[in-house]
Amino acid sequence: MLNRRNFIKAVAGTTIAVPSILSANESVKKDIKFDEIADVIIVGSGVSAHICAAYLAKNKVDVLMIEKMDRMGGNSVLSQQDFAVLNSDLQIKAGIKDSEELFLNDLNKAGAGYNHLEHSLRIIRNSNEAYEFAKSCGVKYADKLKFLGGHSVARSVETIGGGGACIKALHEFFLANRGRFKNETKSDEIIQDENGKVIGISVRENYRFDRNLANDDRQNLSGVKKNYKARLAVVFATGGFSRDVEFRSIVNPRLRLAKSPSSLGQTSGALKQMLKIGAIPTQLALSRFSFGIPTEDLIYGIMVDVNAKRFLNEDGDRQGLSNKILAHMEKLNTTSYPTIIFDSTGFANSHDPNRMQSFIIAGKMKKFDTLDELANHFKLNKDELLKSMQTYEDGIKNNKDEFKKDLSKIKNSSMSKAPFYAMTAAPGLSYTPGGVYADINMRVLHISNYEPIKGLYAVGEATGGVHGQARLTSCSIPDCMTSGIACAKDILKGV
Questions:
Q1: Per-residue pLDDT tens for 416-435?
Q2: Residues 27-40, buried b or exposed e (16+ Cβ, 10 A)?
Q3: CA dihedral 32, 36, 41, 47 (to 10 degrees)
Q4: How far apart are CA 224 and CA 208, in angstroms?
Q5: Comparing C-alpha atoms, which of 492, 485, 339 is closest to residue 421?
Q6: Rounded distance, CA 153 to CA 147, Å?
Q7: Tell me: the pLDDT tens digits for 15-37?
């Protein structure tokens, strides 16, 4: 019996008759006049784009990288860029015993078995090579390891200066090796030859992203139309679609209510271009949330909904809590996010007091001397709020919480000691694990026969099925970097 993974392996390399309706492709055009030519065109400018571009440029390949926004880097520049690496120099120096098996178990546990094994192994086995290559390009890492949540051992390195510094270093390396870059240039359509091979893209130069449009991909007509030819390949490194409320609400209605801290350019336009020529969509309904506050601290407080009522056990991970919050908001038919409340003891129990203080300084969390002030600020019914707090207090006294919170873990926190601290609990969709399916050389496969679409690659968050149900912390960067290098190496085979 073939399971899902074996099915993909079994059909790879096998020719399957393509129904005429699937082989019809309006992107196949003849007698196109090309305005620009490069060996490789990379669409997008985040870390997966840059590492791929840097690797190719170092090997004397003529690369043109385009970015639709006025700034390069996409979501990558917003990232802290912690980087999980197996057998790094820092792990060896610290004498940490790590293994492929340990790392794989951690990835599978987070992914809940939804992640494709071949891509987990691609990340693990090539993480150190990618780390060393990034260093050779000028990316700097701190001389210490992080032991982050979900990992069995300390294996994550810290990028000095975060995503901004990383992209800056890679970009300088790319340009120094004769790479070419154009911003405000948007890919509109993939161009194929009569045999279905991808030979270029149709773009708009001088494109201006308009944040005020409901759907920029569909409504924005700015820019000058041009055709770019790629002698070897087109690489889509276009990230996810977390900012595309319209599209994400179709693939998962619950995501309609989530906020997104992602770059404004995270729309589904590039994904749709690949789907249009037959790429396989995978796991588009999955999501990864950020929460705005370390979720391990929530156990010291309570969360109340728009009616000032508790509705969940606050002890949970951000993925589980976010899903419960959005489901509860759907049930209440409200767009108002819940409120997190700590009393002074609960606030002081935070595992990172300095970070909590920084939330107050930034205005993200508010401090109140009285519950009247708190209720007024968050527009909560004071009587209902007092009732919820009293019920919680009674549960502490009787060691029995109505939502089965383990009260032995709350370190004497309560809801009785002023001042009180509160903030909005708004799940933020920061990453979309779904995308197109690619093999381990990052060649995009066709939905009709599972064969690579010649000349088309996808890397990083543009691909799907890599992380499964939830992406393990600090595993976006090894995915982006190893996929970018795998893609570059496969393209170099054709040089």
A1: 999 999 999 999 998 899 99
A2: bbbeeeeeebebbb
A3: -140
A4: 11
A5: 339
A6: 6
A7: 333 333 334 445 556 679 999 99
